[in-house]
Amino acid sequence: MLMRTDPFREFDRFAQQFIGNQAPGTWSRPTAMPMDAYRQGDWYVVAFDLPGISPDAIDLDVERNVLTVRAERRPLERGEGVEMQVAERPLGVFSRQLFLGDTLDAANIQASYESGVLTLRIPVAEQAKPRKIEIANSDSGQRQIDA
């Protein structure tokens, strides 16, 4: 099971609508990235929206049961004499942390990046999958039931 970890995410979005991003070089909390998460058979799939971010600017780390996704959107290279008219796309560091339950196999996470979407596939651990348990019955032998 996946659990959300940033209780201030909605507050940050609200504040950014009215205050905007801080000036370059000043400290601010890393911006959260939108995500979808769902279960598909024996896998949890998590998709993060990271438009305009180069794959080499994405960093994934797992420590204990915490998955950290960190990405940086850098400014586009502009030639001489370019005067910016509108700059609405946020730049800087985006991050997200997810707590991975004990039922997930954090050692075998698969990651792919296509069309600005980072997709992680996290397998369900073998010990968490449903299994059959044999029941011994002295009258008629053994039978199976679902666990």
UniProtKB/TrEMBL annotation:
Residues making up the signal peptide according to the UniProt record: none
Residue ranges of every copy of the SHSP domain listed in the record: 26-138
InterPro entries on file: A-crystallin/Hsp20_dom, HSP20-like_chaperone, Small_HSP
SUPFAM superfamilies hit by this protein: HSP20-like chaperones (SSF49764)
Pfam families for the chain: HSP20
Superkingdom classification of source: Bacteria
Family assignment from sequence similarity: Belongs to the small heat shock protein (HSP20) family.
Protein name: Hsp20/alpha crystallin family protein
Organism listed in the record: Kribbella turkmenica
